[in-house]
């Protein structure tokens, strides 16, 4: 679960980031489809007062997207669930006039950008996400990010230190030379916490 956090990036200060991001992991597409189906786990979760209030807020736009996970660092399983982290959530969009094929762009990103990300001082976790096809009964718009990534640090100070390191400058230089998707990107610092969700029996009420 991610909520807005803090961090200093010399190359940008994106505003109007998400109020809440629920990032859920599934072992396979079938499990995902079942959770997103009518009367599935997500539909029951969204009946909770907190989520119902968010959906009813006039300024709240809710979206969903399913993505494949590429994990480049071992998950921090040793950390207690209540431990907070600072996460940099990044999304890349593809412009309509982009002349770069996505496969070529992604190959360049994975080959050259990811090794630089792995060199960030204080890095705890790094994951890269690409879209997959999915089915969903949820009444929310489908986000269309071409690619996302998650870079995790112990706290906002560690994130800021990493973003002011030579690695960040090297990442910027690579972005200038790399193929362009033409749609821009967003970078949001978030405060993150891992939660273990307990399966809810269909007969159970909450």
Automatic annotation (TrEMBL):
Domain of life: Bacteria
Database matches in InterPro entries: Dimeric_a/b-barrel
Stored SUPFAM superfamilies: Dimeric alpha+beta barrel (SSF54909)
Protein name: EthD domain-containing protein
Organism whose genome encodes this protein: Paraburkholderia fungorum
Segments for region (Disordered): 170-206
């Amino acid at each position: 679960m991610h909520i807005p956090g803090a961090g200093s990036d010399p190359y940008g200060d994106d505003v109007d980031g998400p109020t809440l991001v629920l990032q859920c992991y599934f072992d396979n597409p079938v499990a995902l489809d079942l959770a997103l189906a009518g009367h599935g786990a997500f539909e029951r979760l969204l009946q909770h007062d907190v989520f119902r209030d968010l959906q009813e807020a006039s300024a709240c736009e809710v979206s969903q997207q399913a993505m494949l996970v590429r994990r480049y660092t071992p998950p921090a399983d040793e950390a207690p669930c209540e431990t907070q982290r600072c996460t940099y959530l990044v999304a890349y969009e593809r412009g309509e006039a982009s002349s770069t094929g996505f496969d070529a762009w992604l190959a360049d990103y994975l080959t050259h950008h990811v090794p630089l990300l792995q060199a960030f001082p204080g890095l705890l976790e790094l994951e890269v996400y690409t879209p997959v096809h999915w089915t969903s009964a949820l009444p929310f718009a489908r986000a269309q990010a071409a690619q996302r990534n998650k870079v995790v640090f112990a706290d906002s100070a560690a994130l800021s230190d990493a973003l002011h390191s030579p690695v960040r400058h090297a990442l910027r230089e690579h972005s200038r030379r790399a193929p362009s998707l033409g749609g821009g990107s967003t970078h949001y610092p978030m405060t993150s916490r891992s939660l273990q969700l307990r399966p809810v029996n269909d007969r159970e009420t909450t």
